[in-house]
Amino acid sequence: MRAATPFLSVISSNTWWTRRRCSLRSSARFSSASSSPKLESDEFLRWLRHRSGTEISSVLSIGRSPYGRALYANADIKTGDILFKVPFSLQLSPLNLPSQISSLLGNEVDDATRVAVLILLEKRLGKESKWEPYLRRLPPLEYMHNTIFWSSSELQNIAISGLYGDTVKQNALIDKYFCNVKLVSDAFPDQLPGVTLSEFRYAYGLITSRAWISYRGISLIPFADFINHDGDSGSYLVGDESEQVSEAMADRDFSIGDEVRIRYGKLSNADLLLDFGFTIGNNRFDMVRIELHVPKHDQLYNVKVELLQRLHSTGSVKAIDTSSKWNSFVLKEVRNGDKKGKGIPQSIRAFARIVICDMMEELEELAMAASQKDGRLARLPLEKSKEIVAHKLILVEMVRSIDERDEQLRILSTNCSHLDGKSGIRSKLAADLLKGELRVLKSAALWLKNYCSALELS
Fold it and tell me: Positive or negative, the Cα torsion across 82, 58, 13, 276?
């Protein structure tokens, strides 16, 4: 699971929930809704109403778009109207897993694994499962484009992105959790016969793409998980413990036939692609991860590395992604009009200031200055010439990363014209990811150039 996009636990009677993940979508998924969506029958809503004894939604219907299921307004909706209410009793969580199976899985697996095993158990029951109408509507594997399902050659298209490493880590976790799942399959051959790794990966991908977290753990929420993401929406899923429901409220007016969406969270295209299998154009939450290095030939190499590692572990040099390596930093797009000194994270600037120190005395001076203030090292500008050198060091890495992405996008542009189907979709998704990272890098590089120019002219 990605530490960069943590869940929010439900700790009060009315708390925002963070969407876990979703399935196949592309940037086109978020174009304006069709004026005449293809709606499904109300069979599923009737089943939900029968199961819960209450109305789930009187204003939304399930429709089909070219990219999968979606929720559409079947009546005029006003800002502040409740879009749906799904009782906790209808949700699939680790609490629904038989206790003997849950115990055998042990404490080494996460809640997503427990719900994935629950899905596998219920799917084995076929039409005898009480969740069959819902399970039948979950997307098949061929429509899921989360990067955990990409082939090695497809992943090579994003090898220069931090998403590549995140995908490798997630797949390694899935492999690890499968060892526990296999123990369950062997112990309960009548209930869970012959589970394969690919089958478990698919189930795990369903959970990590469709679930939210609550006090009950990770939960699949039927009907609510058909709603799609809009990064500009002000609507979120809310857990109301007093009413024992998950609900969402409209943040704007909708007319009949409009697709209704909420925001899963402030998610970059890397988050969306890993967790949901889609990207969005000009995503304002896009980020890029870069690494800086202390030159191996530096006479103070060991001292600097030890210092930087210690500062990272204590949070004195803090990256946005707290799971990152000590020399890894996450950059966001630098908007026009950002004030001087606010363009890129102070953590990466402090790192560069330490790297360009030539003498032990300089490092000692930085440590002394930090101890006399808030303890954060190298947060104040150096003298002008050294400050310029430090920031040009960062700029060199930015330019290198920009050139890498320009070249990979050129290759993808050439290859995409010869690909169709699944491979074509994933090549386009890779291009969308890299374009977003390129935009962030160029904005940061421009800020650095302007900062250095201003120093040189001062």
Answer: negative
287: helix, strand or coil: strand
263 Cβ partners below 8 Å, 6+ apart?
A: 229, 230, 231, 232, 233, 234, 235, 236
Q: pLDDT tens across 144-186, in order?
A: 999 999 999 999 999 999 999 999 999 999 999 999 999 999 9
Q: How far apart are CA 235 and CA 260, in angstroms?
A: 10
Q: Which residues contact 69 (CB under 8 A, 6 or more apart)?
A: 40, 62, 63, 137, 226
pLDDT at site 34: 44
The predicted structure's pLDDT at residue 68: 81
pLDDT for residue 317 is more than 70:
no
Q: What pLDDT score was predicted for residue 36?
A: 65
Residue 45: the pLDDT is 86
State percent of the chain over pLDDT 70. Answer: 86
Q: Which two tokens stand for residue 209?
A: 């793409």
Extended strands (E) in 295-384: 328-332
Return d(Cα 156, Cα 380) in angstroms, integer: 40
Measure the CA–CA gap between 17 and 236, rounded to whole angstroms: 7
Q: Phi then psi for 423, rounded to 5 degrees?
A: -65, -40
* DSSP code, position 229: E
Q: DSSP code of 29?
A: G
Please enumerate, as own/partner, the contacts of 308-313 that have beta carbons within 8 Å and a separation of 24 or more: 308/351, 308/354, 311/377
Q: How far apart are CA 266 and CA 256, in angstroms?
A: 28
Does residue 431 contact residue 409 with C-beta atoms inside 8 Å?
yes
Q: Per-residue pLDDT tens for 411-430?
A: 999 877 676 788 899 999 99
d(CA 66, CA 259): 13
Residue 30 has a pLDDT of 37
**What is 405-447 written as a DSSP string?**
HHHHHHHHHHHHTT--HHHHHHHHHHHHHHHHHHHHHHHHHHH
pLDDT tens profile 54-104: 999 999 999 987 778 899 999 999 999 999 999 999 999 999 999 999 999
DSSP helix/strand/coil, 87: strand
Q: Which helix (H) or strand (E) holds 202?
A: helix 197-210
Question: For residue 65, which of 169, 139, 6, 123 has the smallest C-alpha distance?
Answer: 139
Report residue 354 as tokens.
């330490």
Q: In 3-state terms, the chain is what percent helix, strand and coil (to 5)?
A: 50, 15, 40
From CA 80, how far away is CA 70, in angstroms rounded?
Answer: 20
